[in-house]
Amino acid sequence: MMKQKRPFHVMIIPTLGCPSKCSYCWSSEVGSPIMSIETIQDVVEWLKDFRDDPVTFTFHGGEPLLAGADFYRKALPMLSQELAHLSPNFALQTNLWKMTPELADVLAEHKIPIGSSLDGPQELNDRQRSHGYYEKTMAGYELAKEHGLQVQFICTFTSDSVQFKEEIFNYFLENGLTLKLHPALPSLRSDEPNRWALSPEVYGELLVYLLDKYLENMDRIEVRNINDYCRCVFTGRGTVCTFVDCMENTFAVGPDGSIYPCYRFVGMPEYVMGNVSDHPSREDLAGSAPGLRMRQFKEYVDRVCKGCKHIRYCRGGCPYNAIAPNNGEIKGVDPHCIAYRRIFDEISDRFNKEMMGSFGMGMGMGMPGPGSQPAEKSRPGIMSLMQRMIEK
Ligand code: SF4
Ligand code: SF4
Description:
Elements: E1 8-12, H1 37-48, E2 55-59, H2 69-82, E3 89-93, H3 101-109, E4 114-117, H4 122-128, H5 133-146, E5 151-157, H6 165-174, E6 180-183, H7 200-216, H8 224-235, E7 250-253, E8 258-260, E9 274-275, H9 282-287, H10 289-304, H11 311-314, H12 319-323, H13 337-362, H14 382-391
Parallel strand pairs: 1-2, 1-7, 2-3, 3-4, 4-5, 5-6
Antiparallel strand pairs: 7-8, 8-9
Helix pairs in contact: 1-2, 2-3, 7-13, 8-13, 8-14
The protein binds iron/sulfur cluster (2 copies).
One iron/sulfur cluster binds next to helix 11 and helix 13.
């Protein structure tokens, strides 16, 4: 029997440095070194016999473009040619400030899809990121587009910007941009970790709000997170890292070649699983202290989420969110559980109601029976969204 392939993900963090000073950032570090091309060669040697599955490399940061055009000109062919047996895919997450025609050419040559960040209209964006952010990102965006690069934006909602959710949604709608959102996380490197963080309750309400806005405007916008939640409910399987067991299928490599369970842990010495220069095996990484902690989280979820109807696809959410704020102790699932449950329940309840409704109407070919109330003006529901997702 043919062995089933299990894609895995390696995030490469060329530096934790970043030219922006976003107010709520939790992942950049002043004075962080830049990864050398020798470390990329070590990544290649490490992965040659690591496993026989397709790999996706995501360059993340800090700000990965700080590594410069020469780094990517060498790194991309090394990874794609010397690891051709793993069919590598690539992606890059950047604020675009450091985009140059030279960098854009190298990235376009390898057709690298780009993810960037924009939190809404200029004033709102700059208020929570930094003054001048919007203009610099937009300049990079124009340059990227001119060179044929595909760019999608992630919008971070904070406890402040969530008050302007309608304005933000309309900004993405009117500018023809796909909306993907992140809730601001507590910044573990800040004196006020919760200053910008979005509470799980408010995040849950925001997701339901966006579900309604999406259903009203399905022809004009795509809200990626809502698609992801719907896919979980319809197929019973998660499709983004938060809703699968990410451990053992996701790794991150820091600027000095240290291996971590995910980019979110990079720079935290207690989460170093090994170093690419030692070519650790899967077993070595799984047996390291952070590897064991990630596995313990999985077992913890099996126990504490046992009674939850969403466990199959939710899997306790993100282990970083669950364990990093507790100094590595496992004493709860992802605090966004409240938000996940809210939106999963909403989608499955609406779906079940629509199913019941359509069965009830089935015999009468959709016509109301005698004495029935006049039908409400029909709005597209979850089933229309599902239909659309299948057609795509
Ligand atoms: S730790 Fe969280 S962000 Fe990182 S891969 Fe796992 S689910 Fe995704
Ligand atoms: S929704 Fe909450 S209880 Fe249910 S599986 Fe996810 S984290 Fe566990």
